[in-house]
Structure to design on (753 residues):
């Protein structure tokens, strides 16, 4: 019985300390030092929240850079991947049709090597990035769909280059382009 | 792989090896009650804890009272987490108005978080309220990790003391590891993660109007604080379903490096603490080396498998279930270390790994989570293997086996065998049951040998208290919630109790002074023997099942066969 009381008391003590005080301390510091990030890095345009910098959106329109395939259709409730094994026929089928679609949609040469992130679904289903290579392959199609002249098209290419992030601190992770930020930017090309 | 990939790996391991003695030495001071730099900062809180619970910190107990306290404490935690989920709809801090959790899922999740497994049959953002995540799950993230450390420290005392029945005070060990190790590190890590973009708030879910005119409801919550402790405590249960693949949990490659480092550093540093406590850092480094060799072997196989081409997908990089910002190397490294350490957080979907890298993840868990392993748990699991190795070596040369001057007798060997059999029985029996019953098979997401792998993975993860999954398996059913929940409890307490019994029995023994004939446990011969014993035990137990799952799938994949 004595042990039970001690166990109960210490459980209560740690519940308050690590379950309430700890997250509150972290929230307090986070909201003070990094308020934008702590609240989800949202992008507001004309008083409307149009997305989070970190959360990918579905882009399949002809005038936008396409985002990666997503097993959840970019609906974050809940996040997740396809969980297909590599010997799953559905995965093979999906990769084949996505490859054909990417080539046809972007009017590319039939033998173009399609970047793998454009035919494989991401882990979170919310991957905000594609490779700059994948973005470049889409430039012609977008320029054509938007009736861009040569100067505007060069501006489009420049956008992809500006939005390409190299590996963090030169060594960490992969080169990538944030599709949402890029698409917001190209809407401003006049 | 590019040069940049190799540099990333080198940076990661250099950081790990460099900081192991630093944190290890600090934890040595914490657990032996010596002065350390956090004492002036948090000493008052430690004293307040003892005063509040009415315990004298220098009063030590025998192994039975120690175990009883531990079990009582964990039982209370279990009941609390279970009830919280069953009642969350009536409780505050539930802005998404999530309903009460089903009894079997609540049982599974309570078992999961109390046992430091953090297997998740549910999806965080659509199942559990902020309140349950905070005062239910995050608390267990701290205290289940602290429980693991306590058991380890008690075991080390048993080994290093002589002719006493006292192995320490559970409440003191629990308090010190929470206050001085987990809490400060978690605060630092959580803030660093928010700096990279992880979220930390109590807001309602945010509805956004996307560029293409759709609506997207984005979950919010105190993610970073939970993320930090779930890595440091080798828990692994994500606030959000996609875990560390979710941009709100790990938004950048740097946050990825931080969380990978966080999940390995405490188990690694504890080997140094162990060495200091038994009076020879060489002993600690020997264990560290054995673990590191197994880790690197697994990593090499996984990287090789993921970078190989196969007839199904040709030369495409295998990016299914992986995030662009991390790329293949970081995803593979994460999958290997999260299963070495019984963390179970993921930054890529393990179900979509190549058959061989999926197998490496499974073997890491099947070997008993001793390749660094869970906080505390990995090292006490390793000591079980050391006892067996010493015993086998003793049999070979015909001497009474000894470890660090303590004679190993029938009792210790029996307990070690129980601790080893408990998780393996769970894996083999339950996996056999699941793969031979309709109720087990109906949850599969993949056909062919990969289906068997999904089942094997689930029970290996539960028994090893890992928590990662081949997440295609729909485990939120009565059958899986109950079998996996039970498996986790057996895998945890079926090891802890024998380990504490060994601690008690070792403490009572005399210490035999070293002599020329003493079998050394700190040289490369011993490291090789230890690795051999681990691989033989694990290999013999699980090779037949693995050959029907990932191994046959590997060959079929290379013949271009799909299901």
């Amino acid at each position: 019985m004595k042990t039970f009381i001690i166990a109960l008391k210490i459980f209560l003590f740690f519940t308050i300390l690590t379950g309430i005080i700890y997250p509150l301390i972290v929230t307090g510091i986070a909201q003070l030092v990094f308020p934008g990030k702590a609240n989800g890095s949202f992008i507001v345009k004309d008083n409307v929240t149009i997305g989070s910098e970190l959360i990918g959106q579905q882009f399949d329109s002809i005038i936008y850079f396409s985002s990666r395939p997503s097993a959840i259709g970019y609906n974050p409730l809940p996040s997740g991947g396809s969980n297909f094994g590599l010997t799953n026929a559905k995965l093979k089928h999906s990769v084949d049709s996505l490859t054909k679609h990417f080539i046809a949609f972007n009017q590319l040469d039939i033998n173009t090597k399609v970047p793998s992130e454009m035919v494989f679904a991401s882990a979170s289903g919310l991957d905000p990035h594609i490779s700059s290579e994948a973005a470049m392959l889409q430039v012609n199609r977008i320029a054509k769909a938007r009736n861009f002249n040569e100067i505007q098209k060069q501006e489009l290419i420049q956008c992809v280059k500006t939005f390409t992030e190299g590996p963090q601190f030169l060594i960490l992770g992969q080169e990538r382009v944030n599709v949402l930020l890029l698409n917001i930017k190209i809407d401003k090309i006049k | 792989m590019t040069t940049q990939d190799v540099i990333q790996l080198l940076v990661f391991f250099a950081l790990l090896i460099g900081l192991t003695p630093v944190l290890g030495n600090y934890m040595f001071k914490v657990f032996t009650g010596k002065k350390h730099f956090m004492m002036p900062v948090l000493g008052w809180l430690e004293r307040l804890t003892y005063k509040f619970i009415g315990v004298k910190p220098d009063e030590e107990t025998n192994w039975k009272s120690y175990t009883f306290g531990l079990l009582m404490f964990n039982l209370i935690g279990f009941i609390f987490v279970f009830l919280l989920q069953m009642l969350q709809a009536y409780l505050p801090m539930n802005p998404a108005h999530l309903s009460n959790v089903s009894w079997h899922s609540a049982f599974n999740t309570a078992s999961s978080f109390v046992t430091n497994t953090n297997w998740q049959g549910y999806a965080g953002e659509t199942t559990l309220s902020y309140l349950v995540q905070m005062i239910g799950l995050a608390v267990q993230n701290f205290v289940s990790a602290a429980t693991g450390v306590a058991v380890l420290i008690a075991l080390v005392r048993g080994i290093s003391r002589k002719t006493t029945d006292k192995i320490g005070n559970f409440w003191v060990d629990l308090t010190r590891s929470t206050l001085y190790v987990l809490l400060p590190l978690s605060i630092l890590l959580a803030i660093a993660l928010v700096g990279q973009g992880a979220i930390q708030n109590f807001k309602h879910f945010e509805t956004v109007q996307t560029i293409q005119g759709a609506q997207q409801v984005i979950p919010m919550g105190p993610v970073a604080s939970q993320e930090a402790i779930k890595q440091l405590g080798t828990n692994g249960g994500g606030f959000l379903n996609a875990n560390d693949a979710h941009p709100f949990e790990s938004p950048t490659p740097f946050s990825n490096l931080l969380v990978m480092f966080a999940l390995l550093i405490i188990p690694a540093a504890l080997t140094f603490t162990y060495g200091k406590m038994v009076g020879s850092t060489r002993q600690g480094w020997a264990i560290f080396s054995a673990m590191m060799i197994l880790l690197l072997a697994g990593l090499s196989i996984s990287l090789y498998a993921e970078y190989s081409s196969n007839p199904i997908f040709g030369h495409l990089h295998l990016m299914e279930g992986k995030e662009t910002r991390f790329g293949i190397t970081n995803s593979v490294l994460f999958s290997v270390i999260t299963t070495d350490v019984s963390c179970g957080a993921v930054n890529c979907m393990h179900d979509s790994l190549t058959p061989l890298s999926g197998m490496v993840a499974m073997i890491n868990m099947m070997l008993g989570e001793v390749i660094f392993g869970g906080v505390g748990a990995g090292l006490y699991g390793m000591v079980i293997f050391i006892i067996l190795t010493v015993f086998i070596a003793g049999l070979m040369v015909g001497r009474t086996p000894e470890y660090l001057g303590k004679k190993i007798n029938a009792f210790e060997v029996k307990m070690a065998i129980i601790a080893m059999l408990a998780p393996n029985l769970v894996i083999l029996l339950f996996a056999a049951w699941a793969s031979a019953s309709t109720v087990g098979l109906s949850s599969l997401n993949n056909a062919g040998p990969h289906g068997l792998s999904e089942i094997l993975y689930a029970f290996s993860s539960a028994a090893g208290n890992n928590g990662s999954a081949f997440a295609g398996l729909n485990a939120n059913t009565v059958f899986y919630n109950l079998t996996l929940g039970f498996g986790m409890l057996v895998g945890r307490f079926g090891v802890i109790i024998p380990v504490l019994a060994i601690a008690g029995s070792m403490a009572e023994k005399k210490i035999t002074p070293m002599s020329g004939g003493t079998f050394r446990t700190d040289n490369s011969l011993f490291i090789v023997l230890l690795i051999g014993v681990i691989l033989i035990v694990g290999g013999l137990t699980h090779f037949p099942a693995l050959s029907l799952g990932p191994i046959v799938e590997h060959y079929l994949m290379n013949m271009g066969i799909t299901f």
Chain A has a mean pLDDT of 96. Residues 2-33 of chain A form the longest helix (32 residues). Chain A touches chain B through 94 residues (CB under 8 Å).
